[in-house]
């Protein structure tokens, strides 16, 4: 993939000059990448209005972005969104409802690859959660090594609430962040935590009042690795996450088959249809 590089002031950091890298190969422009001149850290912003739903194209863009930043020896990545109220609304349920099975398989394989890329990234990562972050949004945030969240939003894995069993790839990074008992209860309850509660249980690391403050906190975290050898850092991270990554790599085909079998069941299709309708009608009441 090719990038067009321009210099510009960024809305994130006021007048600090940054390199704006815009993906040219993506016709949808669903990701924006900015590299800070001073720190060398990249900010990856999901940009799929209105609520950054993870469809096949956005998922593929996230995977490609990570691979390219690794190749470019990026020193740190901050994942955020261009929205003022949503980090990511999670999987685009339209991908799951009445699916073309071939595309559904491609979709889930892409999600597995995105998870492998972000959870296993060689580059240090921080999530700047500047809005709601349910389900797939929470998966992305927990793939990162550090989370800073703005107040009065929600985050968590709510699949059980609408009758879905979160697949292993959805659970693992959540389990990596939380004590097992809290993770189990929260998943069984399909619980979404407020920013404050997420801080109290350790699902996020810090709160920030504004996006700018959150950005500075993410930068501060990434700078803690400044004096650490990047290879040693990355191999140490792999030692912690390697088993989870290997389990998915080895079980990818089974995970895919289980997912497709589960999602295409009549009962699950009915639940997905009802949930879509509920989301669509939410504001009319
Ligand atoms: C052993 C084998 C196991 C196999 C397991 C198999 C299956 C499990 C599968 C899946 C796992 C899934 C993980 C997921 O990520 S599922 C997605 C979960 N996401 C949600 O529940 C979020 C729902 N959305 C919201 O709560 C709000 O939209 C949000 C807080 C994000 C934003 O609110 P806001 O008021 O700003 O915006 P809205 O007006 O509500 O939404 C705008 C627009 O988007 C539509 N929409 C919202 N979310 C989704 C979605 N996830 N999918 C599809 N469409 C969505 C919403 O309906 C609006 O559209 P319209 O009505 O204006 O047309």
UniProtKB/TrEMBL annotation:
Pfam families hit by this protein: ECH_1
Entry keyword set: Acetylation, Fatty acid metabolism, Isomerase, Lipid metabolism, Mitochondrion, Transit peptide
Swiss-Prot/TrEMBL catalytic activity: (3Z)-octenoyl-CoA = (2E)-octenoyl-CoA; (3Z)-dodecenoyl-CoA = (2E)-dodecenoyl-CoA; (3Z)-decenoyl-CoA = (2E)-decenoyl-CoA; (2E)-tetradecenoyl-CoA = (3Z)-tetradecenoyl-CoA
Taxonomic superkingdom: Eukaryota
Localization (cell): Mitochondrion matrix
InterPro entries: ClpP/crotonase-like_dom_sf, Enoyl-CoA_hydra/iso
GO cellular component term of the entry, any: mitochondrial matrix
Pathway the protein takes part in: Lipid metabolism; fatty acid beta-oxidation
A biological process term (GO) from this entry: fatty acid beta-oxidation
A single GO molecular function term of this UniProt record: delta(3)-delta(2)-enoyl-CoA isomerase activity
SUBUNIT field: Homotrimer.
Task performed by this protein: Key enzyme of fatty acid beta-oxidation. Able to isomerize both 3-cis (3Z) and 3-trans (3E) double bonds into the 2-trans (2E) form in a range of enoyl-CoA species, with a preference for (3Z)-enoyl-CoAs over (3E)-enoyl-CoAs. The catalytic efficiency of this enzyme is not affected by the fatty acyl chain length.
Designated name of the protein: Enoyl-CoA delta isomerase 1, mitochondrial
Organism: Musca domestica
Lineage: Eukaryota, Metazoa, Ecdysozoa, Arthropoda, Hexapoda
């Amino acid at each position: 993939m090719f990038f067009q590089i321009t210099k510009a002031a960024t809305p994130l950091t006021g007048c600090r000059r940054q390199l704006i890298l815009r993906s040219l190969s993506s016709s949808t422009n669903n990701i924006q990448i900015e590299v800070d001149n001073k720190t060398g850290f990249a900010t990856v912003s999901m940009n799929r209005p209105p609520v950054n739903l993870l469809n096949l194209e956005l998922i593929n863009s996230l995977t490609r972005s990570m691979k390219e930043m690794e190749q470019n020896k990026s020193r740190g990545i901050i994942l955020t969104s261009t929205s003022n109220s949503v980090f990511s609304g999670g999987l685009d349920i339209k991908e799951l409802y009445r699916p073309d099975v071939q595309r559904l398989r491609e979709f889930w394989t892409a999600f597995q690859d995105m998870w492998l890329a972000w959870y296993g990234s060689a580059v240090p990562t921080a999530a700047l959660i500047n809005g709601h972050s349910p389900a797939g949004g929470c998966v992305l945030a927990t793939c990162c090594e550090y989370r800073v969240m703005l107040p009065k939003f929600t985050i968590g894995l709510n699949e059980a609430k609408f009758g879905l069993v979160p697949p292993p790839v959805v659970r693992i990074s959540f389990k990596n962040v939380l004590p097992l008992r809290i993770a189990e209860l929260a998943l069984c309850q399909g619980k979404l935590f407020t920013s404050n509660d997420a801080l109290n249980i350790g699902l996020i690391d810090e709160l920030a009042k504004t996006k700018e403050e959150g950005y500075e906190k993410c930068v501060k975290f990434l700078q803690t690795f400044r004096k650490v050898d990047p290879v040693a850092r990355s191999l140490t991270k792999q030692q912690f996450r390697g088993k989870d990554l290997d389990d998915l790599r080895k079980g990818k085909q089974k995970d895919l088959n289980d997912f497709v079998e589960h999602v295409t069941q009549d009962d699950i299709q009915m639940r997905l249809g009802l949930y879509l309708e509920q989301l669509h009608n939410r504001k009319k009441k």
